[in-house]
Design goal:
The structure is a single chain. By secondary structure, the chain is mostly beta strands. The strands form four sheets. Strands 1, 4, 6, 7, 8, 9, 10 and 14 form an eight-stranded antiparallel β-sheet that branches. Strands 2, 3, 5, 11, 12, 13 and 15 form a seven-stranded antiparallel β-sheet that branches. A seven-stranded antiparallel β-sheet has the order 16-17-28-19-24-25-26, covered by helices on one side. Strand 12 and strand 13 form a beta hairpin. The two termini are 20 Å apart.
């Protein structure tokens, strides 16, 4: 795609629509330590960030005859994901970087038989993912442990993955307030010295589980004890000692995408011909190099939606039903506008979630606008004036096509490419919406006919 240029040249400032600023993200990624509570009984009760620790056992003990590798100086996520696929831990490594914390993040426990936790990616739930970090530890006993809580839906339901100074890796499922089992695996490649550093990575895809220490597969198994999604926490634990300190650096979370074939929906094949206007649009995108081929699935088609804002500076955003959260997609529609102000806009929103969204809109004064929202701020806001093939008359219709594939953004208006750019900011799937934005007038009505959404693989 040598003919395309990045829309964000160095040093250039773009005008933006300040009406996007109210989009708010609560982005506190670290939760402070809170009240410590001693626990008893059959299962832990979470109070603040402390929980009862699982007692190590030899259940599920097995050896792999591992050699000791060199601890990597920098975690190579993509190479590790490729190795997970080769090892059969993952069916596919397709996904996106959902969270990264350079750190260091310190978690310390000074109560015997307890674990202390620190939440990351607060408020976000994960089901299928790979998670890793470089962990330094300091403890007065060999049973001190560091690791992760995954699929944490409550203090009674989660997976606990840990490494300990006794040279072992453990997986402990907590189900209904009880440890359903504790799987312990020897890891000869662990640096068990107090003050040592190791990398720990885990992967969960469905009921498949993989655990890697310093880049080497230690355990591969299936377990369906905790099927539901949940939050993520870093942990430090003690058993018969008085303290354990864990320092986490380069913490990363890779959220795995379900494959097209495994996702509910109408998977389109050659035996299910597409409507001609959708087929032509996808072929045009393929010819531009925005998509590799006409592959994917049709989520909705021939839908009619109206977005209407009847007060000045009012916005109307309508989620398209039956689509759900999508990462890579193409959305198209015949758009008809009725407005008493040429500055009012109609358009699409993609990847709309708590962390941000992409906005693509046209206005009756001949402008195209692309805006990126991240958190509570506008990262990029680009306006391109003088779109010659736009039907700007009140009551006129336009064919608008919006494609988001990885980092590539493409907009086609009435069959002609209007915009191409690269944007790396919003990396999570999100809802798909239509919008009407009212500026300077009393009314804007945007009617979307023959609307369709195509999910890209």
């Amino acid at each position: 795609m040598s003919s395309h240029k990045n829309f964000e040249p160095p040093g250039r400032t773009f005008p933006f629509h300040n009406h996007y600023l109210p989009v708010v993200l609560v982005a506190f990624l670290l939760v402070g330590f809170t009240i410590l509570t001693l626990l008893g009984g059959a299962g832990p009760v979470l109070a603040g960030d402390d929980m009862q620790a699982a007692t190590p056992t030899t259940s599920g003990l097995m050896g792999f005859g591992l050699s000791t590798p060199t601890v990597p100086s920098q975690i190579d996520v993509r190479s590790l994901l490729e190795q997970m696929v080769l090892d059969g831990v993952l069916a596919s490594g397709n996904g996106y970087m959902a969270e990264y914390q350079a750190g260091p993040l310190e978690v310390e426990q000074t109560l015997e038989g307890m674990i202390r936790t620190l939440e990351i990616a607060e408020g976000v739930e994960f089901t299928d993912l790979a998670l890793g970090a470089t962990i330094g530890w300091d403890s007065d006993v060999e049973t001190g442990e560091c690791g992760f809580l995954v699929r944490f839906s409550s203090p009674d339901d989660f997976y606990k993955f840990t490494i300990s100074r006794n040279g072992a890796v453990a997986l402990s499922p907590m189900v209904g307030g009880e440890w359903s089992d504790v799987y312990v695996y020897p890891a000869p490649n662990l640096d068990t010295t107090s003050g040592g550093t190791n990398s720990l990575a885990v992967a969960l895809q469905g009921n498949r589980v993989g655990i890697y220490v310093n880049g080497v597969l230690i355990a591969s198994l299936t377990d369906s004890s905790v099927p539901a999604g949940g939050g993520l926490r870093l942990i430090a634990g003690t058993y018969d000692g008085s303290w354990t300190q864990c320092t986490f650096s380069d913490v990363w979370v890779w959220e795995l995408e379900p494959t097209v074939a495994s996702t509910p929906g109408a998977v389109v094949s050659q035996t299910q011909p597409l409507p001609q206007h959708i087929q032509s649009a996808l072929e045009q995108l393929a010819s531009l190099g925005v998509i590799d081929s006409v592959q994917g699935r049709l989520l909705v088609s021939d839908v009619s939606v109206v977005a209407e804002a009847n007060a000045q500076d009012q916005n109307a955003w309508i989620e398209i039903q039956g689509v759900g959260d999508v990462l890579n997609l193409v959305i198209g529609a015949t758009l008809t506008w009725e407005s008493d102000s040429e500055r009012s806009e109609c358009g699409f929103i993609a990847r709309h979630s708590a962390i941000g969204a992409y906005f693509a809109a046209i206005s009756r004064d001949g402008y195209f606008a692309f805006t990126t929202i991240t958190g509570d701020s506008v990262r990029n806001a680009l306006e391109i004036p003088g779109i010659q093939n736009m039907n700007s008359a009140n009551g006129a219709s336009n064919e608008l096509l919006f494609a988001v594939n990885g980092e590539e953004i493409e907009v086609i208006l009435n069959g002609v490419e209007a915009f191409w750019g690269l944007e790396y900011t919003v990396t999570r799937p999100g809802s798909v919406m239509v919008m009407a934005n009212n500026y300077g007038g009393n009314r804007i009505r945007c009617s979307f006919e023959r609307l369709w959404v195509w999910e890209l693989p």
